[in-house]
Amino acid sequence: MTGTSKRPSEGRIDEGETVHRRTRALAAALAVATIVPLAACSTGEGSGPPVLTWYINPDNGGQAAIAASCSEASGGAYRIETSLLPRDAAAQREQLARRLAAKDASIDLMSLDPPFIPELSEAGFLAPVPEDVATATTQDVVQGAIDGSTWKGELVAIPFWANTQLLWYRKSVAQAAGLDLTQPVTWDQIVTAAQDQDKYLAVQGAKAESLTVWINALVESGGGQILENPEAPADELTLGLETDAGRNAARIIGEIGSSGVGGPGLPSEDEAASLTLFQGDKGSFMVNWPFVWSSTLGGVDAGSLDQALLDDIGWTLYPQAVEGQETRPPYGGISIGVGAFSEHTDLSYEAAQCIVSAENQASYMVSDGNPAASTAAYDDPAVQEAYPMYDVIRQSLEQAAPRPQTPFYNEVSTGLQQTWYPPASVTEDGTPVTSTEFITAVLRGERLL
Fold first, then answer.
1. Are residues 49 and 63 in the same domain?
2. Residues 291, 349: one domain?
3. CATH number at residue 348
4. Residue 98 resides in a domain
5. Percentage of residues in the chain having pLDDT higher than 90
6. How many structural domains is the chain composed of?
7. Which structural domain range is residue 84 located in?
8. Does 98 have pLDDT greater than 90?
9. Residues 6+ apart with CB under 8 A from 73
10. What is the pLDDT of residues 242-290, one digit of tens each?
11. Pair (78, 103) in one structural domain
């Protein structure tokens, strides 16, 4: 039971799952759904129902189990086979883009990282979503998931599971600092509280996608956008970093980096390292995905962590970048795309609707720890038992902001990682200017990443 994009499960297998749960899910999946090599094709020829190949990101077996369940539920209309993509999200993008560029008919269904959806849609690699399917699959779905599956005002992929970061805190530290976490808090407040208590604030400062996630959440929470016209061609894109929101984001990151409150390992700190820091004696506050809970619970069950630590953990919405202004937490997750060159697009969309049913999303959240995009899934008693903070996750997803939706996301994200790193070097006035100049030059072909 873990959460994620970029948390560890967005491109990497989640932590905290028990062996018996994984084994049970895989055994059920293998009874109907076969994991096939990437070179396989779903021609549907021969005896039996048409075979739909679903290219999935690595997980704990939950997607294969859903494939088995939906195959059975189809009553012989289709059979879903799953094919495993690389562990890293960028490698997943490259694998799919190359195959789709070759008009690979074997790609019926795809588990897609939202930042790469505009690129695939713009290239004509995604089959249009039928209007009735779009209506059915966006009912009772959190807004962040809908936004992340949309390009140029149209739904181009089907929301499956969603993810968001919460503010996790040690109750004892917050109490000692006199910080009331029943009310919205700001980044400045948690930085001050951690410093006053001589503790570390856990954030993701590594030169990786997680840094882009942090920057975007800060800019969006400040009322801005990294890209002001994300649908524009590369040489016409306008960055929104040289704004009050961009400068405030740089101020926050720079202060955490230069003050030492982020801990000595901040420049190499990813989601897993952040959790380790937070669980230690100097832990105080942390922004991270919901996998935090199940990972810590698993550590307690295994005897490597104390029950007192688990009892001391609280959670609330992501910090405000500007006091009194609604926070826009990170959004991550997976959407289901249908390949434009599939021989079974109608059946693929029928299968997609089964895959993303509220029941399957709830089951997947419990088995694999990936939060549901469906609001109804959070009413499932099993979800509420596994995730006591289910209501905060759901609220956070409603407010969450996707990363820049552009076909040139790779250039923008990599450019941010190169210019906002290390955190200690980030300055309020200098970094937004330097970053804007560099990314703009890359987009115009004047500089290389």
1. yes
2. no
3. 3.40.190.10
4. yes
5. 88
6. 2
7. 19-164+333-399
8. yes
9. 354
10. 999 999 999 999 999 999 999 999 999 999 999 999 999 999 999 999 9
11. yes
Q: What is the pLDDT of residue 46?
A: 57
Do 352 and 420 belong together in one domain? no
What pLDDT was estimated at residue 407? 96
Instruction: Specify whether 349 is located in the same domain as 324.
Output: no
